[in-house]
């Protein structure tokens, strides 16, 4: 009898297999423009972008954020990276009997503040309580819808000036050789912030989670144009994003390790724990694939935003091979294989 393990929820290839073998097998088969089986950041039907996200982070409050901020940001960002404008959220709570009302209030306040930052409201929801011991304190599901905008139309028209492009949205399958890859900031901050706080590690410097809604920054980028896909490197980190793009677009991606922004404290933590920062989740960063002619313009626009000040062009798409290759700092090349799961469980 096989049983569910934490790896089945960790965002890597073990989770992908469960989704394909079980969830899509029974729930796939819609005629949505971007259906369940596309496994993109959101689905799209009748030009409505739809996303659902459950959050089980442990602990509920961590340096730089909390589960409420995470829930709103995660859903908003998954809608925005499709090129859509988030317009409304739902919020469903499952509470464990005995949970402090003051903690619930703290989470709700944080959700409210994050909604204001993102310019969205929660417009419907649900609340359930289970017996003590039936779950670990608190789970929240946020779903959201988004709509098509003039900024997306403009963005696509700019892409078409430079290369062939027949998608109507920003999809994982849109990359072509020559496109450039940009990281909006330092990798691994969220996962290391939660892990070090939860397990009481002292890595010398305090790392804060980057959790943040990024829809306004993304809207500004679309106004410039030339973007073929954006993705938020959450569970499985940068490595997961690049491997999904490589597989779905059937292209190779080459990344210069020295260009990937990462904090010293995150590198130190990863070395101590024997994990790879490229596989660690972020909640306030985007990876952008853009036609090469607009890469510098998009990079400077990202850097105008405080959350994008460390942005770098980290690599490009190639037809020389398939998969993801890392040019290492010491001058070698290695294959960046898809992570089995996020090395840090329960961070979102
Ligand atoms: Mg995503």
Describe it for me?
- There is one protein chain.
- The protein has 348 residues and is α+β, with helices and mostly antiparallel strands.
- It folds into two domains: 40-147, 2-Layer Sandwich (60s Ribosomal Protein L30, Chain: A), CATH 3.30.1330.10; 150-335, PurM-like C-terminal domain (Phosphoribosyl-aminoimidazole Synthetase, Chain A, domain 2), CATH 3.90.650.
- The chain has nine helices and 14 strands.
- The chain has a seven-stranded mixed β-sheet with strand order 9-11-8-12-10-13-14. A five-stranded mixed β-sheet has the order 1-2-7-5-6, covered by helices on one side.
- A hairpin with a 2-residue loop joins strand 3 and strand 4 (65-66).
- The two termini are 28 Å apart.
- The mean pLDDT is 96.
- The structure holds magnesium ion.
- Magnesium ion (MG) binds next to loops.
Low-pLDDT parts are none
Q: List all distinct small molecules, including ions and cofactors, that are bound in this structure.
A: magnesium ion
**Cα distance spanning the termini:** 28 Å
Number of domains: 2
CATH fold-level name of the largest domain: Phosphoribosyl-aminoimidazole Synthetase, Chain A, domain 2
Secondary structure class reads alpha+beta
Could you state the CATH homologous superfamily of the largest domain? PurM-like C-terminal domain
Widest β-sheet, arrangement of strands: 9-11-8-12-10-13-14
The whole-number mean of residue pLDDT values reads 96
- Treating each run of at least 4 consecutive H or I residues as one helix, how many helices? 9
> How much of the polypeptide forms β-strand, as a percent range?
15-25%
What is the tally of beta strands? 14
CATH class bucket of the largest domain: Alpha Beta
Oligomer: single chain
């Amino acid at each position: 009898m096989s049983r569910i393990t934490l790896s089945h929820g960790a965002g890597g290839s073990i989770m992908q297999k469960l989704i394909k073998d079980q969830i899509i097998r029974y729930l796939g088969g819609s005629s949505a423009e971007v259906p369940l089986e596309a496994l993109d950041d959101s689905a799209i039907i009748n030009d409505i972008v739809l996303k659902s996200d459950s959050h089980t982070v442990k602990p509920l409050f961590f340096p730089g954020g909390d589960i409420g901020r995470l829930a709103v940001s995660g859903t908003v960002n998954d809608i925005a990276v499709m090129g859509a404008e988030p317009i409304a959220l739902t919020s469903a709570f499952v509470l464990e009997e005995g949970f402090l009302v003051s903690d619930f209030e703290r989470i709700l306040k944080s959700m409210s503040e994050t909604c204001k930052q993102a310019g969205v409201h929660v417009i419907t929801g649900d609340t359930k309580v289970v017996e003590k011991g039936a779950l670990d304190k608190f789970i929240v599901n946020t779903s959201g819808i988004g709509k098509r905008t003039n900024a997306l139309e403009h963005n696509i028209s700019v892409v078409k000036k430079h290369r062939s492009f027949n998608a109507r949205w920003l999809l994982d399958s849109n990359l072509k050789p020559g496109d450039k890859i940009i990281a909006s900031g330092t990798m691994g901050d969220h996962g290391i912030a939660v892990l070090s706080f939860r397990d009481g590690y002292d890595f010398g410097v305090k790392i804060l989670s980057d959790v943040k809604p990024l829809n306004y920054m993304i809207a500004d980028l679309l106004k410039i144009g030339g973007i073929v896909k954006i993705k938020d490197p959450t569970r499985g980190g940068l490595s997961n994003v690049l491997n999904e793009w490589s597989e779905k677009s059937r292209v190779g991606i080459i990344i210069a390790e020295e260009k990937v922004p990462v904090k010293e404290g995150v590198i130190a933590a990863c070395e101590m724990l024997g994990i790879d920062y490229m596989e660690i989740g972020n909640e306030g960063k985007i990876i952008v694939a853009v036609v090469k002619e607009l890469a510098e313009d998009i990079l400077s626009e990202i850097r105008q935003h405080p959350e994008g000040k460390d942005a770098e062009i980290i690599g490009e798409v190639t037809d020389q091979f398939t998969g993801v290759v890392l040019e290492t700092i010491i001058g070698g090349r290695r294959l960046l294989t898809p992570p089995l799961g996020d090395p840090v469980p329960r961070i979102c």
